[in-house]
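Box S1 | Example of a co-folding query
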Amino acid sequence: MTSRQSETPDHAGRVRIDLHAHSTASDGTCTPEELVRAARATGLDVLAITDHDTTGGWERAAAARPPGLTLVRGAELSCRWYGTEPSIPLHLLGYLFDPESPELVAELTRVRAAREVRGERIVELLRADGIDVDWAEIRDAAGGGTVGRPHIAQALIRAGLVATTAEAFAPHWLGERYRLPKDDIDVFRAVRLIRQAGGVPVMAHPRATRRGRIVPDSLIVELAAAGLAGLEAEHEDHSPAERDAVRALAAELGLLVTGSSDFHGAHKSVRLGAYTTEVEAYERILAASSGVGVLADPG
Ligand code: AMP
Ligand code: FE
Ligand code: FE
Ligand code: ZN
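Box S1 (continued) | Returned holo structure for zinc ion
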């Protein structure tokens, strides 16, 4: 036995739960192994691995989880709401779904393939403006993980054109000028597919106005009726007022509320466990799931 067991309370008597983190299976910089070890090292009791549009990191994270850490397997689905013009992209976290559910697998495969086409097109736009970045090199650097703009940002850094990932997301770079839409999943379909696979859908950073346009409350009301289980409130991209608004809406609709770091390693400055989820919300996610179970402390 080790001194630190699963769901061991911290000094304040709290179990520390972070339900949103990325690995090299998408646009994080820690391998799945490094991610679970770092989670425990930072004092987390529960971590969810939620790479963009893939379950590709699940096995490695599961095999490497250290004593004291419970792993929640999930993903962050690239979705879109087509009920307004132009349509609005949004992210849906899915937890504990069956990774072999055929329709869901087909959608994730389609979205990842579309991301490659889009990435290559963004590179073509850059090259047309005389910016020397190479698609094959960017794709190879992603190492088989889901490709995203952060990988293109690294190429801009390597080329000495920008100093940081954040700078690469400025409007005159990937934030706007060289931004192309992704071929996302209709958000109602995504909610249905996650539920159908026994998973639990939670909307990521629903009020993050600093990321771009956000969806109206009326859509969240409709999604709740369609099976959405919760809203992520505590997130670095939400202002205090936005967090309060999310909590109020969740309370009104009977949705659970989460808090998460959305850790991306060196691609962002936020640290693992910077925002956490209350045990009651975590338990509601477990109770609502029937796809795969959590992977408890191996130690
Ligand atoms: P994509 O999925 O290809 O559209 O890229 C979006 C990803 O880029 C997000 O998941 C974040 O990881 C990252 N990202 C978005 N905005 C920023 C930013 N301002 N600074 C750093 N990373 C960002
Ligand atoms: Fe990301
Ligand atoms: Fe997100
Ligand atoms: Zn994320």
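The CA atoms of residues 104 and 193 lie 6 Å apart. Residues 1-6 have pLDDT under 50 and may be disordered.
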